[in-house]
Design brief:
With about 90 residues, the protein is an alpha+beta fold. It has helices at about 45-60, 70-80; strands at about 1-10, 20-25, 30-35. About 15% of the residues are buried. This is Mediator of RNA polymerase II transcription subunit 14.
Length: about 90
């Protein structure tokens, strides 16, 4: 299952919000939720994509999926809690 998340970081009003679009793949057979490997058009999003990938990899290592368990919600929650976008990130 492939879906896209747009995550926007809350920042003080004088600045524009920083956001990133994250392609997520959920493998129903294994229960793994990970970032889809999709080529990026903007080179500035590379750092944020690496951060997202690392957070999801760490989540999968620390919380292996049990049979029949869906990890989408828990993975996205971990991503939202652990991701801090660099100021120059725009997508």
């Amino acid at each position: 299952m492939l879906f896209f998340l747009q995550l926007t970081q809350r920042i003080p009003v004088p600045q524009e919000p920083v956001s990133i679009i994250v392609p997520i793949v959920y493998d129903m057979a294994t229960g793994l939720t990970q970032q889809a490997d999709i080529p990026r058009q903007h080179s500035s999003s590379g750092a944020a994509a690496l951060l997202v990938s690392n957070i999801l990899k760490r989540f999968n290592e620390l919380h292996p999926a049990r049979q029949g368990e869906c990890t989408i919600f828990a993975s996205v929650q971990e991503l939202m809690a652990g991701l801090t976008l660099p100021p120059s990130t725009r997508q």
